[in-house]
Amino acid sequence: MILAIDVGGTKMAAGLVAGDGTVTASARVPTPQGADATTLWKTLVELIEPLTEGVKGVEGVGVGCGGPMAWPDGEVSPLNMPGWRGFPLRARLAGRFPGSPVRLHNDAICLAAAEHWKGAGQGSADMLGMVVSTGVGGGLILNGRLINGGTGNAGHIGHVVVEPDGGPRCGCGGHGCLEAIARGPALTAWAVEQGWEPKHPGTGVYLEDRAVTARALAADARAGDPVAVRAMRRAGRALGIAIASATHLCDLDLVTIGGGLSQAGVPLFGPLEEALREHARVEFARRVKVMPASLGQEAGLIGAAALLLAGESYWTERR
Amino acid sequence: MILAIDVGGTKMAAGLVAGDGTVTASARVPTPQGADATTLWKTLVELIEPLTEGVKGVEGVGVGCGGPMAWPDGEVSPLNMPGWRGFPLRARLAGRFPGSPVRLHNDAICLAAAEHWKGAGQGSADMLGMVVSTGVGGGLILNGRLINGGTGNAGHIGHVVVEPDGGPRCGCGGHGCLEAIARGPALTAWAVEQGWEPKHPGTGVYLEDRAVTARALAADARAGDPVAVRAMRRAGRALGIAIASATHLCDLDLVTIGGGLSQAGVPLFGPLEEALREHARVEFARRVKVMPASLGQEAGLIGAAALLLAGESYWTERR
């Protein structure tokens, strides 16, 4: 039995995962906002303790965590958890489970591994697993193996440049990055700036709650609100252009898209496909397919467990 | 001793390569223009025969060839050699050297392997080896291993999108691709359109000869001709943007640039660095270095030989 952990700025989740990838037990808790390092660690320990209490021998611990991080050492500094800066998460967990291997990777990379192992990417040799949510990230699987890159950050499609001249400023300090256009908050901010007021009934929208807002924007786009349609179109095209670039560079079969915005439907995926087909014209690139991720909420745990349960595909030590 | 072969639209080259990567003998011949399949094959045979005559046992044959091709089968249809369409180059060579392994890959990928094995990329774990010439191509090395991609085309940075809106048409059918802006002929055509007339003394320029023309444009840019400077700046910035995207996506240490345009000096590399640093802002991406390729004319042969002599790094069977 593997203990899988998924740590993000909004929630922490943990679960027990069997050899076949089934999550047999799980729990989650909101990440305490503005908490210091000790409080964050205590919250995590209190989450995993009841799960592992009755278990005879945790065979390994797999962790997905928000970046950036020092990889593979597992010292984490998640962007949205200021209390952890260089926090030795891997070492702390190793101390708690002596004798068990602990493997930690970026959360977006774990999601890609999960989709390849048990989700929409099964059977693909060369894929990019994307997440489009508060940020835009991803993980690369090439020739059936997870690619780490020099610092464990390969697959980071959010900073592929899609609007080099006059594109919006990005949180990274650059401009015109995919993330600066297609992440949920950027998308809704742009729509509000263009005069959008959430009006689709029944979504109970609060502009302060960014996840709800992006959902409302998608609903309004489906209902035909012209600004919402334009906002989704802008993000969809940016995604299609970045995917075309990634397909040419990495010779991909498949791109899976998870995260909140992957629920947006035709208003996002229509323009995405249109821009992708416009730009992915070299013969080998035309085969690429784009599919929604299929694993839902448990994907993060399944991917973290895959680092151990299918390590021959999803874990490579640095050469 | 390995027989290495490098087949392109302009020339065919062949050489004997020792285990340490030293080219001990070589020959080259212009590729007969407009020739049919048989003539092309005969030209190649006449090139390799004198080289291998005295050699006791060719241990293997490594081939770099212009794409596209069916890989790893080695049926080639080089863009600039219309006489070969689906030509079974690998099988033909295997028939000529019975018992010897024959490995064939895209020429740009062989150049990347060469630079990583014996050139400017030695010691880099994660690099992109680029060629900027009549076309723009490349090969990816990640975690010290050559990446093939699903069809043997990984590294094809020429079709990364750098000017999505209103960018120039590309030979691939798309628009705004790096290649459409930065390949030599596109660069000089743009300059001529802007009123450039080659004037740098001593370059003996003929506008019909594209290689000479790109060299003359670079020389004029170094001499301060304003249109030539703008042309190089435009190509350099496009290269920098594409390299930033590739660095984020593949978490690279190093990009090497070979091919004729890599000789253009500061007028190209200045704007390249400027655009790269403007866009490669995420912490892990800042470490990337751009260097000229170092192997020169023999790189193609060395890379083709590397497919066999260092196969553990540069050759992977499909899973």
UniProtKB/TrEMBL annotation, chains A, B:
Keywords of the record: Kinase, Transferase
Top-rank taxon, per record: Bacteria
InterPro entries associated with the record: ATPase_NBD, ROK, ROK_cs
Signal peptide span: none
A molecular function GO annotation: kinase activity
Keyword Cell division: no
SUPFAM superfamilies, sorted: Actin-like ATPase domain
UniProt record similarity statement: Belongs to the ROK (NagC/XylR) family.
PANTHER family: N-ACETYLMANNOSAMINE KINASE (PTHR18964:SF169), ROK (REPRESSOR, ORF, KINASE) FAMILY (PTHR18964)
Protein's recorded name: Glucokinase
Source organism of this protein record: Nonomuraea polychroma
Lineage: Bacteria, Bacillati, Actinomycetota, Actinomycetes, Streptosporangiales
